């Protein structure tokens, strides 16, 4: 094997396998992988992918549910020098086709129940549950012994919607993600003795890169779940198999609202991580009241930075329940005005980042890359306030992105679909506070004929992934605008969100 620096995503697993080969690395349903066994399987899977005619630098789509096979495929792509392209398993139609096409994916690894949604002509290999699946091919495959990827090679395209209808692929290198793993380990107190469950989708950068890969780096035993099922999670906690859990506020809200949350023995849960959207303070208070010894961590960031940028640690919550904390190990942040000049502490401005965790730009989108990276700093699009002690609080978003249940949805994309209805004269899509979704996608419509809420929601569901459809449609006579004619969405949020 060609000597390398080892600062690669797959190198994280390789080192853990050499350090603790017999320790259990991953449990999924009835399958258990030791660190040595998982590392060997990754090398065999890398050989399978290269034998399929792929070459280093080729993009490989991943369109599957949570499973050990999904994790193995990502690590195999990393070891083979391929670029992994996670695809939200809820996407269909034109949205899915665009990601496959724009990324230039030569092959898509897909779960059999999802493969039929892919565009005609796309080469696929089933991830699991098929005779020719990636898992089924491992036994006959040789162990990959090719050149190691370089630390600055691309390893993943993380697509983020931003505010436009067309998603952008953040180009993540091995170096960027390994730095982010180190930041996560340090800021979140991850250790080999933790017993984490991973229930959120692995296509999402938070579950994969803030928790699962960093936990593999430190040598923990990881339970991968199909979904954040409340019964399963509470059973695992009560029986002592899980003591560490990351979930967005929607999941924590659902757990704390369960009747048995107050009666089951959950004292074994030591660490609770939340992020991806704003956590309501009453929910934090319920968690602290029910489990006073529980260590709470607020994780904040975005895909372009790996995605962890700031953390509010357990001992920092008092008096700062709405803060997202301070920057992690490898992240530097400032709050600036429109000209990129620092604003005084306590003054809202856009938070900008400089970090080795940052992406290299957006795949084949030079204009968007130039707009996002200015003077060596990445413009996040988030409005924040920094205090004198270095704590950040996110107060708004510069761009009109709706964070619904931890998933970013571009308002313009929903608006474009609704505008196709002949009875819609004008529409503005906003996010309104919601107990379940944190921000419920809401369409404010000026009609020009007879049209119902159900009709517009059905239209959106037909054209978009279901999670992007409005939860509510409100009808008004006119939309508020400023002097230049721009719709004032803040006024709509204030009017209907009260």
Strand sequence of the main sheet, in spatial order? Answer: 2-1-10-9-11-12-13-14-15
Q: Please, how many domains?
A: 2
Query: Could you name the CATH class of the largest domain?
Result: Alpha Beta
Q: CATH superfamily assignment of the largest domain?
A: ANL, N-terminal domain
Beta-strand portion reads 25-35%
CA-atom Rg in angstroms:
23 Å
Largest sheet: 9 strands, mixed
> Helical region count?
15
Give the rounded overall mean pLDDT. 91
CATH-defined architecture of the largest domain:
3-Layer(aba) Sandwich
Indicate the low-confidence ranges by residue numbers.
none
| Measured distance between first and last alpha carbons | 62 Å
CATH topology call of the largest domain: Rossmann fold
Estimate the helix proportion, in percent.
25-40%
How would you classify the helix and strand content by structural class? Answer: alpha/beta
* Shape designation: globular
């Amino acid at each position: 094997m060609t000597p390398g620096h080892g600062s690669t995503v797959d190198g994280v697993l390789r080192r853990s396998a050499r350090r603790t080969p017999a320790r259990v690395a991953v449990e999924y349903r009835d399958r258990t992988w030791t660190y040595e066994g998982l590392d060997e399987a990754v090398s065999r899977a890398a050989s399978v992918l290269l034998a399929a005619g792929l070459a280093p630098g080729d993009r490989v789509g991943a369109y599957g549910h949570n499973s050990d096979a999904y994790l193995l495929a990502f690590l195999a792509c990393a070891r083979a020098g391929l670029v992994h392209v996670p695809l939200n398993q809820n996407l269909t139609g034109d949205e899915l086709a665009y990601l496959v096409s724009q990324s230039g994916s030569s092959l898509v690894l897909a779960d059999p129940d999802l493969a039929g949604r892919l565009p005609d002509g796309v080469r696929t290999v089933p991830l699991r549950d098929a005779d020719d699946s990636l898992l089924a091919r491992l036994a006959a495959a040789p162990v990959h012994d090719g050149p190691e990827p370089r630390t600055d090679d691309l390893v993943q395209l993380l697509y983020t919607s931003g505010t436009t209808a067309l998603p952008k692929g953040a180009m993540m290198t091995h170096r960027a993600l390994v730095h982010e793993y180190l930041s996560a380990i340090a800021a979140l107190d991850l250790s080999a003795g933790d017993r984490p469950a991973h229930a959120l989708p692995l296509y999402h950068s938070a579950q994969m890169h803030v928790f699962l890969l960093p936990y593999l780096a430190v040598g923990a035993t990881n339970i991968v779940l199909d979904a954040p099922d409340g019964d399963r999670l509470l059973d695992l906690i009560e029986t002592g198999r899980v003591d560490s859990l990351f979930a967005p506020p929607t999941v924590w809200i659902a757990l704390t609202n369960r009747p048995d949350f107050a009666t089951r023995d959950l004292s074994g849960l030591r660490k609770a991580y939340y992020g991806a959207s704003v956590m309501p303070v009453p929910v934090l208070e319920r968690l602290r009241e029910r489990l006073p010894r529980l260590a709470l961590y607020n994780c904040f960031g975005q895909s372009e930075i790996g995605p962890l940028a700031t953390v509010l640690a357990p001992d920092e919550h008092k008096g700062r329940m709405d803060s997202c904390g301070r920057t992690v190990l490898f992240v530097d942040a400032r709050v600036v005005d429109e000209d990129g000049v620092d604003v005084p502490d306590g003054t809202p401005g856009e938070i900008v980042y400089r970090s080795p965790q940052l992406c290299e730009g957006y795949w084949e989108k030079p204009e968007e890359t130039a707009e996002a990276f200015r003077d060596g700093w990445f413009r996040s699009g988030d409005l924040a306030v920094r205090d004198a002690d270095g704590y950040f609080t996110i107060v708004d978003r510069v761009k009109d992105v709706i964070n619904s249940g931890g998933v970013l949805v571009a308002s313009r994309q929903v608006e474009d679909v609704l505008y196709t209805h002949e009875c819609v004269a004008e529409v503005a899509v906003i996010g309104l506070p919601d107990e379940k979704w944190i921000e419920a996608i809401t369409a404010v419509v000026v009609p020009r004929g007879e049209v119902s809420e159900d009709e517009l929601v059905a239209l959106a569901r037909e054209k978009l992934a279901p999670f992007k459809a409005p939860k509510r449609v409100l009808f008004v006579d006119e939309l508020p605008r400023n002097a230049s004619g721009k719709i004032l969405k803040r006024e709509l949020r204030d009017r209907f969100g009260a």
